[in-house]
Records
---
Amino acid sequence: MSVKEKLKKVLIEDLNLEDVEPEEIEDDMALFGDGLGLDSLDAVELVVIVQKHFGVEIKDMEEGRPAFQSVNTLAQYIEQRLA
Amino acid sequence: MRMAIQGIGVSGGFGRGVEALRAALQTGTVEVQQGCVERNGGTDIFPAYRASIDGLDEFIPKRALRRIDHFSKMTLLSACLALKDAALLEGDCSRMGVVIASGYGALKTTFDFLDSYLDFGYSCSSPTHFSNSVHNAAAAHVSIQFKATAPSLTVTQFEMSVPSALLSAQQWLAEGRVDQVLFGAIDEYCEVLRYCRKQFFGLGEQGPLQPFSFDKQSAVVGEGAVFFVLTRADENAAYGCIDTVTLGNHLVCPVKLPQDDLLIIGADGHKECGRWYAQAFKGRETAAYAPLYGSFPAAVGFDLAVAALSLRDRTFYASPELSGAATSVVTLHRKLAEEKLVCLKFGPGGDYGLVRLSI
């Protein structure tokens, strides 16, 4: 399973997005606001999800902000840290 | 001060809603589900009364529920049903207090939070799990949902949680701090609870639940939520009234049961509590309904719902399980005249709660 596919799966499971299917999350869809509709508490959960499922620690939110734009940017961030 | 019961909402192993509870009382049977836990040592299969939260999205959109755990979802479902029953679902709840009684609180969420802390460290502990593990979280969800801006409280005193919390509700109404109290009793099942009960009680958890076999461990784990809309009794009651609530200890001050009242005992197959009932109810017309919803501290609230429903239906329902029962136990449904009903619950150390109800 690719990082993007795993990300979509854990986003749905850990954020309880029961009404969303993985294939409905487009790679460049905005995670917050009008896209997937996540909010500030989800941002904190995202930090936990990334560390728990990928072993990548996001130490400050300024660093995380650009990564949290979409599945594409977040997957890229994770892959860079794992490289 | 008497409290009038204006609405009831309930969900448990028998189904959801007052009609499902009435059907269980009339037939005297509930199909107990089979729980199953996979462990390193093999598969653990056991009986359990589980509550479904199906239908909650009729009241609250699914997306709004995504951060809410099973405990709070059970709470919200029964709270919605109670308000609907009292025709208050769309009403102004600004002067409605919320009181919740729970023996264990949100067990699954609490253990999930602790597990995440132990497994991954503090930086990976979910903030959502943490906020839901706070004991008053479920009451807060109810207050927020219905814009109930009066006080919101959760009381935990194990077996005595329900009578203890009822005293707070009664006090708020007597003081005029609130016009109504949305009063709930909730407990949930989780795998850790199953593990603990198996260590303590072993095969005593295999059922069937026999409330009148006082010297035998026969408890079967259950979960569920029941809510009542309570007002001062100067309004007509839809179901009946709670006359008095008494807490005490049978060793210090033996329980005094009103002479002609009919008794509903909270015996639920726990041997440690059974002996107290054996001493207290001698010869009195008695029923026990735990085989319809299982063993858990908040089940006292279900006894209370049965009492309220009995008053409304003018029927004293037969006990569903009679093994070990004395001759005074009610074996057939019978009409209620003007009798009062008393719900009696004992804890293991002789602590008791007594709630007296009448039309």
---
Amino acid sequence: MRFLALIAVIITGIILIYGSVDMPDWGDPHSPASLHVSPRYIEKTMEETATPNMVTSVLADYRGYDTLGETTVIFTAGISCILILRERKRRKKRKINPKNPTNHV
Amino acid sequence: MFDLIISKYNYWIYIILMMIGFYAMIGKKNLVKKIIGMNIFQTAIILFFISTASKKGGTLPIIMHGHGAHAVKAASYINPLPHVLMLTAIVVMVSTLGVALAIVIQIYRRYNTLEENEILRLNK
Amino acid sequence: MTRVTDDIIIRAVARVIMPFIQIYALYVIMHGHHSPGGGFQGGVILGASFILYLITHGLEDAKKRMSELKAGLFSSFGLLIYSGIGLLCLIMGSNYLDYGRLSTLLKVIPAQARSLGILGVEIGVGIAVMAVMFSIFFDISTGGVVPEDEQELETGDE
């Protein structure tokens, strides 16, 4: 089983390294990721949002929906932790009255 | 060949890190070790995205001497978009870690073990 | 169950350092426009200060500062601030979360209105992240057993 896992990992790694040969070089200013939408964010952020930190302006203004959904995700994570772990009612049922041990409150 | 190594070695480091996490996820039997593997996997993806943002000769994406009339060149600042996406991904990583640990605590309460094969044996 | 430490040095240092951590967290949230920072980072630092208090002073004392009920209320309140600002933009007649139209309400130019809208959203995110971090840590460290129930159990067993 462990051997099969190792083989799967090595095959996946070789495929990914083969794919990485076609990726843009490290620090290339003309890579496709740097040419499509980010120049507009960099050049217009002062003019449109008056916020020098581009990460903040993209996070909360240009992509506000993304951040709203993401805040919902962490809210849901907190709620699901509460739902999975808290057990208030069952604990209370197990409480025993000290004066009369047979009387379950 | 030397140029290839110099320009692509960052991807190979992230692939090695990712494969360590992948092996921990599919090869280990303990559930907590699987969660640690998931975190290593996510860290590798975050590092990969951050490395696609870099530009040679660019500085970090905060405009210097912000308020004032001067032209901003896109080539002098690194790409802010992967930073934003990974900022949200880090918080999602913490949320998934919290939910996964909560589920693991419940599994331990029910089966008194965290080994995967013992849980499967008890479930038969 | 968290074990309370009896070490006076740890307790005193944690109590002294907690306000400074919180001031720094508020600085990170508020100064997110001009330096690295923002709602997520500041919220995590703010949550870490409460977690520090919880692991040094125990559940009984920590419940006076931040209880699990307050954490739940704060997390939904932060999300409400975020979606409320989006809804305010909708009422003012623009798209959801398009802060430019808030300029008539705030009496500033649209670019400044966007900056202020970003600040409001970051505050909401910071509150929500702080409460959720504390809530997750509280649940995992106590295993979901709420302290008052524990007290009742102990008195019941005597």
